[in-house]
Amino acid sequence: MKKPLVVGNWKLNPVAITDAQTLARAVATKTKRYAPAVDVVVAPPFPFLSEVARTLKKHAVQLGAQDVFFEESGPHTGEVSAGMLQDIGVQYVIVGHSERRARGETDEVVAQKTIAALRRRLTPIVCIGEHARDARGDFYTVVAKQLAASLQGVSSAQVAKLVIAYEPVWAISAGDGKGKTATPEDVEEMALFIFKELAKHYNRTTARRVRLLYGGSVNPQNAPALGTIENIGGFLVGGASLRPDDFAAIVKNMCI
Ligand code: PGA
What we know:
The chain is α/β, with parallel strands linked by helices and 256 residues long. The protein has helices at residues 17-31, 49-55, 82-87, 98-101, 107-119, 139-150, 156-159, 184-201, 204-209, 223-227, 244-253; strands at residues 5-9, 39-43, 62-65, 92-95, 123-128, 163-166, 211-215, 234-237. The chain has an eight-stranded parallel β-barrel, surrounded by five helices.
């Protein structure tokens, strides 16, 4: 059994470092009881990582970043490397989030970032998901292509160490928790499809070791049904991760 994982993607929030510390402290306190059963990660904006790392020092909550660059150093203005993240205690990194893909990040770049993160022993959370669903089911082909291309060059030993987050873009909220939620049936079918694709590219044993998360308007109300889906080992949470009580309720739900 893989330990469930719940990741809070804070996106471009909160706006001040003191608020980030307060939020991290609240998450740590409210999820403490569930820590032995669930891996809990928060991913604050880059400038707050070090301070949040300090806040979380004596707590079980782990630290994630929201992006990483694939080069280690050099003339790359504005970028942050995997080595830098590792150096300040980051353990997980989200790559290929749809909000970054919307700004031009390609599958090829996502694969490069994934490999760079693995090299520094960071756990990549590779995001994939279709923009829309169609009656013919063409979105399965979209996801299959995105998955294969985002993992281009990732070995079997490496893939077993990473996390895949299935986030249908149409289900991601605007931060107000009011997005459309995928139904448990939608997610269950896609989770099985992703497992089969991984088994095809690698093998079933390896595919079974990959942690698969669901993301897109997860909240305390829909988490119970989504959390029991076979092949889904947790959540990537946006809007609700900024509300410690809601986030803790989602984490609690994975404690079975
Ligand atoms: P949401 O965001 O939970 O606010 O829909 C999820 C994500 O974008 O990772």
